[in-house]
Specification:
Number of helices: 9
Structural class: alpha/beta
Number of strands: 10
Order of helices and strands: HHHHHEEHEEHEEEHEHEE
Shape: globular
Largest sheet: 4 strands, mixed
Mean pLDDT: 84
Distance between the termini: 44 Å
Strand content: 15-25%
């Protein structure tokens, strides 16, 4: 796990796929069997094992009716004219082929992975919406050019509650990296951005945006593939004024400070992609819908 993979991550599931364990009840039995083997080594083993089998039976009742050929089920809904939302689970730069190898996951979180994972052809996907924060974060090891290992980074983490949802690991925080985002927009063919956590930047006197990298005296506009080069790059920053007013809870452009709007517009210019919606708090309704990504 030295490259950042989570012990409770997808590794076990990927091994099951390789082993061709396709039946839902086989997967459940295998997982519960592993648990039983562990529980027998502990105190009160009989009670623990009994609980494990109760869990197995419950999982079977839930999973079996929901098992099937996903591609066929999705295809039927698309043919009926229904809107199907496919959600990626991790960041593009964790992609096993196009990410910051070896600090990656075992699958393809790029938009192309949506076809592979769902079993529908890429021409069926009509819209790709990218979701990102108004600053940059990363969980685990790997290159992070704009990381802030100071009070500002700590402030972003505390304000944004930056802890992994599965493991609780503290996320690394830094200024917005327009280079990485622009690279991601290209790799995944992103057509619009959902920009979240703008309110976390409230109150900063100045805000910095990474617009390029400096490598051995020259300027580069992408993250190098070489790990050695990645370790040597230095971010090139553009500093813009912050805002003292609050953006929290804003639901229209009119509710935003002028400087916050300028920040969003500058991000659009740098990443070469429009912001489709803007989130200003954890509440679902505190969203500014610029364009409807699901409109026909």
């Amino acid at each position: 796990h030295h490259v950042g993979e989570q012990p409770r991550g997808v590794g076990g599931r990927r091994l099951e796929e390789v082993a061709h364990v396709h039946e839902a009840h086989d997967v459940v039995d295998r997982r519960v069997g592993d648990r039983v083997a562990r529980e027998r080594q502990l105190a009160h083993a009989d009670d623990r094992v009994a609980d494990a089998y109760v869990t197995r039976d419950g999982l079977r009742r839930v999973l079996m009716p929901a098992s099937g050929v996903v591609g066929t089920l999705v295809h039927v809904e698309v043919e009926r004219g229904e809107t199907v939302l496919l959600e990626g689970s991790q960041g593009t730069l964790l992609d096993v082929d196009h990410g910051t190898y070896p600090y990656v996951t075992s699958s393809n979180p790029t938009s192309g992975g949506a076809s592979v994972g769902s079993g529908i052809g890429p021409t069926r996907i009509t819209t790709v919406l990218g979701i990102l924060k108004a600053y940059t974060t990363r969980v685990g090891s790997g290159p992070f050019p704009t990381e802030l290992e100071d009070g500002i980074g700590q402030k972003l983490g505390e304000r944004g509650h930056e802890f992994g949802t599965v493991t609780g690991r503290k996320r690394r925080c830094g200024w917005f990296d327009a280079v990485l985002v622009r690279q991601t927009v290209r790799t995944s063919g992103i057509q619009g951005i959902a920009l979240t956590k703008l309110d976390i930047l409230d109150g900063f006197e100045t805000i910095r945006i990474c617009t390029g990298y400096r490598l051995d005296g020259r300027t580069v506009d992408h993250l190098p593939a070489s790990q050695a080069d990645q370790a040597r790059i230095e971010p090139i920053y553009e500093t813009i004024p912050g805002w003292s007013e609050t953006t929290a809870g804003a639901r229209s452009w009119a509710d935003l400070p002028a400087q916050a709007i300028k920040y969003v517009r500058r991000i659009e210019e740098l990443i070469q992609c429009p912001v489709a919606l803007l989130s200003t708090s954890p509440e679902r309704d505190d969203t500014i819908l610029v364009t409807d990504p699901f409109a026909d």
